[in-house]
Design a protein that fits this description.
single chain, mainly alpha, 35% helix, elongated
Length: 295
């Protein structure tokens, strides 16, 4: 019975789900028969590979890449636990690879009822994670949600000063000595000091130190992303503090002006008495003089 190309056996099909149990017909060169044609994944695989379909992932030149479709075997393997007709991942493997074709091989070597012990397929004590979940617990892994990296500070353009070049020279000497101490001089000669600190990290330390952005090892990790901060971060902080400019004191001291002590009598004389308020006098509109128009 030929496969129906319109039915690919996916979970979203509205038809009857396929049966997993494969039935192998004897005889060389005969095709494998299954209870439902949609489970004949090997025949479908051959057809899709010839057509250059979704399994091969190839498209004709000049055409847009089509969406990759899920084949029958992978669909059944992933959703074996949610499909009542499957409920076993090993059954999917046996059907895909024709493992049951070897069930009777031991009878060909020896015609007795037990057959050949070497060719006899032994029954496994552990089936799959659906039937024996406890045996697969050591192989399970949970992907933890990655923490969002802290945003680095934005640095404006600047001109390097002498202290910046001194810090850069100190870091250059330090990473060479540290590479030789940790990995050997041969590694330093072959691979260079970037084994401990890359050039990009060194330049970033100088830049952020110039703008006073690195005070602790946590600041060093956040601003530069240096992976060896836990090992050598404290040493770098010492170098940064050594070449940092002196911090201005928060307290500004201004010397007081020295003045001679004043006598109490002079203090009383220096106190200005309030001047009397002069009342405004009206002017005559005829002659422009003051004092004779009713005041």
């Amino acid at each position: 019975m030929a496969d129906d190309p319109s039915n690919n056996g996916s979970v979203g099909d509205g038809g009857q789900p396929p049966v997993v149990n494969c039935q192998i017909e004897s005889g060389e060169g005969e095709e494998r028969k299954v209870a439902n044609p949609t489970l004949d994944v090997q025949a479908k695989l051959k057809g899709k590979q010839k057509e250059g379909g979704p399994l091969s992932g190839r498209t004709a030149p000049g055409k847009q890449l089509a969406r990759r479709a899920l084949d029958d075997g992978m669909d059944l393997l992933i959703n074996a636990g949610s499909r009542p007709d499957v409920v076993c991942r090993r059954e999917v493997f046996d059907c895909w690879f024709d493992n049951r074709a070897a069930d009777t091989d031991h009878l060909e070597c020896r015609t007795t009822a037990e057959g050949c012990d070497c060719c006899h397929v032994k029954k496994l004590a552990v089936c799959c994670d659906l039937h024996n979940p406890a045996d697969f617990l050591p192989f399970t892994s949970t992907v933890s949600k990655q923490r969002r990296a802290m945003q680095r500070s934005h640095l404006p353009k600047y001109t390097k000063e002498k202290r910046d070049y001194d810090l850069e020279s100190t870091l250059q000497e330090w990473r060479e000595a540290k590479t030789a101490a940790v990995y050997s001089y041969a590694a330093l000669d072959r691979h260079g000091p970037s084994l401990i600190m890359t050039n990009a990290t060194l330049n970033a330390i100088v830049d952020y130190a110039h703008h006073d952005k690195i005070q602790t090892a946590q600041d060093l990790r956040r601003e530069t992303g240096w992976t060896r901060t836990d090992q050598f971060g404290d040493e770098i902080i010492v170098f940064i503090q050594r070449h940092a400019p002196p911090r201005p004191s928060p307290f500004v001291s201004t010397p007081l002006r020295i003045t001679a002590p004043l006598h109490p009598s002079s203090i009383a004389l220096n106190i200005a008495s309030p001047s009397p308020v002069v009342k405004r006098r009206n002017k005559c509109s005829a002659c422009g003089q003051e004092g004779h128009n009713g005041e």
